[in-house]
Prior knowledge:
By secondary structure, the chain is α+β, with helices and mostly antiparallel strands. It has 4 domains: 3-47, no CATH class; 60-102; 133-215; 217-297. The protein is built from 4 helices and 19 strands. The longest helix has 47 residues, at 49-95. The termini are far apart.
Amino acid sequence: MNNYDDPHRKASDDYNNGTIDEKMCPLCGTILPGNVRFCTECGTVQETQKRKKEGENKRLIAVFIALAAVVLAVIAVNLVFYILANKENTKKRLDGTYHGISVNVSDISVPEIPNIDEFSDLTENAAASENYTEKYPDGNYRIGEDIPKGTYILTVSDSNFDDMRREAYYAIYSDPECNNVISGKWFESSAIVKLETDGYIKFSWCEAVALDDFDGENSPFEHSGMFRCGIDFEAGTYRLVPTTDQGYQMYYVHENVDSIDYDVIYREGNHGFPEGTEVTVKEGEILELSYCILEKS
């Protein structure tokens, strides 16, 4: 019997040659499909075609890694020789000659080191520009274009009025000709204004600054106006002191910035209160004073 007359031997040869997808169990000789993992007769673990190919792939990867290591080693050796060769050229440059050319070190220009004081001035100016606060002098502005929408504080210039008579005016209009007034009033020293809708604002004898950026003086112990409790003064109970004997004094406590009603002090405010009247203000509230100031109780 030749090799091909033996079915077990023929199946084994064909499997090893990759001509058919069958194999022979190495233990019992049963012919099995090529991808089964266990013999159906004896249960012996079988080598699949996939595992065979994976073994071949691993051998190819190992060969590739070995070749890559050889290439990197050659590159490293060449780099070392290059560095050593250039070391001698560098020495020649420092000695004043290179490839037969004479070099005078005094002819080489060295960049001037910046003055440290000038550098400090530059950094201070940069910091100042970052902390710049936009101020809007008295005038007429289109809301949303000339002046961004938001909440502002208007403060009267000290150079315009006396200590207790620092008055200014603002009004919000729906038209650029300033004929249709939406809201506005005279105020003393300071006023908090919300610019929420399209329109125009005109103010005189004062300047506007975004409320969150304002860091100037605004004290209810020195003048009338609008004040943030917890920022401009501490929460507590205070005496109200009129600054006029004409009976015009008024005060009102707003719940917060968002609840400010510009006419409420005239409608519901405490008018012409007697001397010795006290007011209690909580943190976050807005105190509005007209013709009066605070005094600690």
